[in-house]
Design goal:
214 residues, 3 helices, 11% helix, 13 strands, Elongation Factor Tu (Ef-tu), domain 3, EC 2.5.1.9, six-stranded antiparallel β-barrel, 2 domains, mainly beta
Length: 214
């Protein structure tokens, strides 16, 4: 499990492409790799991956075809920067919300607004996924637990404070970028249960209740 509190930014050093499998060599800050064990779980842009090898501060991960199909990991190239979080341990502070590291879908950055001292980023989801998004609810974007601001049809936004921009790759985001999305599991369970009982959520055109920063 993960907390959605990104621990830093790592750099892709190499990508080895084989049929149905990409091996990613990713360099983390050295102090974040001192006690890593082979088989440990690390979230890379929110995707739970298993450490298969370590060379100094560089960790190796295998991403199989299903992972490449469902996430943006198949787009990664040497030099790309990614968010990372090592798996949570019992006793760790849960500063965000619990994540599984299993990506549901991807979204596209469609607008970036830069009011004074913060940034608002708008994302567009594939049809059907916005039913799980609510203002003030949670969503994980590239592994970061964020509070949802507005939801408009299949688009939503988040408001990012300077610390979030510093500690994650969101400070480098550009319109057109694709990101990994993990829906809050409790929200998904409630929405799906109500739908089975005949209380499906109606389509929403515009909702604006503001947002807390993350």
């Amino acid at each position: 499990m993960f907390t959605g509190i990104v621990q830093g930014i790592a750099t892709v050093e190499a990508v080895t492409v084989r049929p149905g499998l990409n091996t990613l060599a990713i360099r983390l800050p050295e102090h974040q790799t001192r006690d890593v064990a082979i088989g440990a779980s690390v979230a890379i842009n929110g995707t739970c991956l298993t450490v298969t090898r370590q060379e100094g501060a560089t960790l190796y991960f295998d991403a199989m075809q299903e992972t490449l199909n469902r996430t943006i990991l198949g787009q990664l190239a040497p030099g790309d920067r990614v968010n990372f979080e090592r798996a949570a341990r019992i006793g760790d502070e849960i500063g965000g919300h619990l994540l599984s590291g299993h990506i549901h879908t991807t979204a596209t950055v469609v607008a970036i607004e830069r009011p004074e001292n913060n940034v608002t980023v708008w994302f567009e989801l594939p049809e059907g996924w916005s039913r799980y998004l609510f203002p003030k609810g949670f969503v994980a974007v590239n592994g970061a637990s964020l509070t949802i601001g507005e939801v408009r049809d299949n688009r939503f936004n988040v408001h990012l404070i300077p610390e979030t921009l510093r500690a994650t790759t969101f400070g480098e985001a550009q319109v057109g970028d694709r990101v990994n999305i993990e829906i809050d599991s409790q929200t998904q369970a409630i929405v799906d249960t109500l739908a089975r009982l005949g209380y499906d959520r109606p389509a929403s055109n515009t909702t604006n209740l503001g947002s807390a920063s993350s």
